[in-house]
């Protein structure tokens, strides 16, 4: 299954699940994270660790966030395929056990929040 992203700036590009997974693996490698890939039936799976599996359909990445609902179900994190770098940053931060902060954080008193 191919997904086409319309863009007013760039020409339309098609991203398959396999291609998206390969892009994510490259970005994770920049964080020093090795990952295995498995593809089939229009989906791709990026195996980061035994407890962290990222799924993609070529449009979205989806992975367990490490949090659970009150009913004991995992809460999933989502990220669009067109922002692979941020997805890799979020996954790397989750593996390190730190909260992902997309912008420099400052506390209301002007400190660094630490």
Topology of helices and strands:
Elements: E1 2-5, E2 13-16, H1 17-29, E3 36-40, E4 43-49, E5 52-56, E6 60-68, E7 74-80, H2 84-96
Antiparallel strand pairs: 1-2, 3-4, 4-5, 5-6, 6-7
Helix pairs in contact: 1-2
Tally of separate helices: 2
What percentage of residues falls in helices of 4 or more residues? Answer: 10-25%
Find the structural class using helix and strand composition: alpha+beta
Q: Please give the number of β-strands.
A: 7
Strand order of the largest sheet: 3-4-5-6-7
**Through-space gap between termini:** 46 Å
Shape: globular
Task: From the alpha carbons, calculate the radius of gyration and give it in angstroms.
Answer: 16 Å
Largest sheet: 5 strands, antiparallel
Q: What string, H for helix and E for strand, traces the elements in order?
A: EEHEEEEEH
Please tag this protein with its features:
alpha+beta, two-stranded antiparallel sheet, 2 helices, 23% helix
At a glance:
With 114 residues, this protein is an alpha+beta fold. The protein contains two helices and seven strands, in the order E-E-H-E-E-E-E-E-H.
What does this molecule look like?
With 114 residues, the protein is α+β, with helices and mostly antiparallel strands. 23% of the residues lie in helices and 36% in strands. The chain is built from two helices and seven strands; from the N terminus they run ββαβββββα. Strands 3-4-5-6-7 form a five-stranded antiparallel sheet. A two-stranded antiparallel sheet has the order 1-2. Helix 1 crosses helix 2 (84-96). The longest helix is centred in the N-terminal third of the chain and has 13 residues, at 17-29. The chain is globular and about 40 Å long.
